[in-house]
Amino acid sequence: MYTCPFPLSGSFTETPMSTATETQLDVEISISETAPCTKRITMKVPAAAIDARLETALAAFISEASFPGFRKGKAPRALVEKRVGGALVTEARNQLMSDAYSRAIEENSLRPISDPRPVEGESVPELARGKDFRFVVEIEVAPDFAIPDFGSFEVRKPMIEVTGEHIDGEILRQSYRWGTPARIEGPFEHLDRMLGKAVVTVAGRDGSYFETDKALCVVPAKEDEGKGALLGLLIDGLDKVLLGKKPGDTVTVQTKGSDSHEREELRGKDITITYTIGEAERITPRSNKELAEMFGVESEEIFRDQVKDALEQRRDGEQRAAMREQVAEHLTSTIEIPLPTKLSEAQVSRSLEQQRMELLSRGLEPAAVENRLAEMRSKSEADARNRLKLFFIMARLAEHFGVQVTEQELNGRVAMMAAQQNMRPEQMRQQIEKSGRMNEVISMIRDAKVSDRIIGQAKVAEIAAEDWNKLVEARAKA
Predict the structure, then answer these.
(1) Cβ pair 17, 88 in contact under 8 A
(2) What is the dihedral of CA 55, 56, 59, 60, to 10 degrees?
(3) What is the mean pLDDT of each run of 10 residues along the chain (478 residues)?
(4) Could you tell me the domains of the chain?
(5) Which of 348, 411, 423, 438 could form a disulfide with 262 if both were Cys (CB 3.0 to 4.6 A apart)?
(6) Taking the CA of residue 374 as centre, how many other CA atoms within 13 Å lie in the half-sphere pointing to its CB?
(7) How far apart, in whole angstroms, are the C-alpha atoms of residue 302 and residue 324?
(8) Distance CA 329, CA 343 (A)
(9) For residue 409, which of 434, 365, 453, 443 has the smallest C-alpha distance?
(10) CB contact set of 84 (below 8 Å; sequence gap of 6+)
């Protein structure tokens, strides 16, 4: 049952004072739609029901109360009302609101995606004997739609063979990942890492918007075409700003917040970051022999075989991910549903955090994940709305297919993510729970199962990796 933490009345949880067993609440409920996916719920509890609730609560408390000078349950009614009457009325008011809201949700099969909020111009009256009790809230609800037939949908399965070139590239990546860092004094080169103080200002706002003494930055690799992430923002030409600099230097970068940024106050705003470099390091890559020894294998040849196995597993995962991405594109392009007129920070953040968990589970290094997320933040509001649209569609299809996420599946995904990041499963789980991202992991597993159900109904056609990449590039340019 959805519990309503209504902001005007505090929590709806019962206090230990409640001992009465309540019957079903008599309440009049009316619901109207005030905006796409937004419902206004008006609830009125008649005076007779109010009186009955208050009388039951008072009688139950008297029967259990112990006051000095009186036996248990024998304290005079007037004394009890004087001592705790106000608290009983407040508790009854909170419980009535909770019961009325829960009944409105259940009887009207609503699927809330936000906490209820007060309506401007409406206030919650005090609870009083002999008077009706009326209150109004607004909530956002998940949209509904007709389930389509997926039998005619075609999914392309990209095929690729792991070659020696792929193996060499992966070994090179691992050599830097597990290389030896050493402090440097500059001048900076590609892939040098640095920590420094960042001060962010936003056009139209006085003073600094954000400051930190521990902003991490990496000089973009040559193949990144100058783009790199700083404070989660994708910066064009970051390489030109950092190459040749040294600790102690201060650089300034400018960018614009995307229309879909999870922080509403940054959307479409000119952003300036003043970055003072504090310290820097350069990675000396490990040799192939050292990598083999680190991973506990007897020879470089065996190490290459293990890397090939890992790449084939990753290829299979990427292949499945590509097919699931086609499902996502098909769903968002063919299913029309209303969306909230204004994307909230929580909705955008939830979508990005789910993407973060997905990328980590596919074996991307944390730095690469942050770059991908920065790219997503830089995209248009239409892209953000499509991600949110997909969230609602997947939730509805999960209900349709009866998809549930088991504890075993959750543990398996956490263990897989841990292996990809070279961590112990318990460390990964603790990290996810501490960051509050476990719901995103659950949603990721759910969405994958839903996509696989659809793929199982669709027509699957194999396609060469080269042809697949051309299709992807063409779509990116469109």
Answers:
(1) yes
(2) -150
(3) 36 33 74 87 90 79 70 67 71 86 90 82 79 89 87 92 90 88 92 93 90 91 86 89 94 85 81 94 92 90 92 89 92 86 59 72 69 67 76 89 92 84 85 83 90 94 89 73
(4) 28-140 (3.30.70.1050), 154-173+292-477 (1.10.3120), 180-284 (3.10.50.40)
(5) 348
(6) 19
(7) 33
(8) 20
(9) 443
(10) 17, 61, 65
Residues 329, 331: Cα–Cα separation, whole Å = 5
Q: What is the DSSP letter of 37?
A: T
Q: What percent of the chain has pLDDT over 70?
A: 84
| Of the candidates 136, 204, 145, the residue with the CA atom closest to the CA atom of residue 392 | 145
What is the enclosing helix (H) or strand (E) of 244? none
Tell me the residue length of the chain: 478
Which residues, other chains included, contact 376 with Cβ-Cβ below 8 Å and sequence gap of 6+? 352, 355, 383
Residues 6+ apart with CB under 8 A from 196: 213, 215, 217, 275, 276, 277, 278, 279
